[in-house]
Amino acid sequence: MSQLRNDTTRSRYEMDEQGETSWADYRLQGERLYIDHVESPDSLRGTGAAGRLMGALAQDARERGLKITPICGYAAAWLRRNKDFADLVS
Questions:
Q1: DSSP state of 72
Q2: Which of 60, 53, 61, 51 is nearest to 82 (CA)?
Q3: Where do the H-state alpha helices sit in 1-90?
Q4: Percent helix, strand and coil across the chain, each rounded to 5?
Q5: Distances (CA, A) of 2 to 14, 18, 63, 83, 89
Q6: In this structure, which of 30, 34, 37, 59 has its CB flanked by the most CB atoms within 10 Å?
Q7: H or E segment at 17?
Q8: pLDDT for 32-88, tens place per residue?
Q9: Rounded CA gap, 20 and 17, in Å?
């Protein structure tokens, strides 16, 4: 597993596992991070890869002083289940 990458030119967080990349498309507006879409390749589905990506993404948002607005259903569900990051959601 690799470290979280923030590809600001594509507005995409990425993380590699097993030679594949999971990603989260986002929009940054001021101090608000809108998570539009989270996806993992078929080969990583069910392995927790998207959850690890969301955890790293949420930690990055916290360190940067950002609030998260999940547009993606997966991102919204993940944030509801992970109460440690409830303070970031708005």
A1: S
A2: 51
A3: 49-63, 73-81
A4: 35, 35, 30
A5: 9, 9, 19, 24, 25
A6: 34
A7: strand 12-17
A8: 999 999 999 999 989 999 999 999 999 999 999 999 999 999 999 999 999 999 999
A9: 5
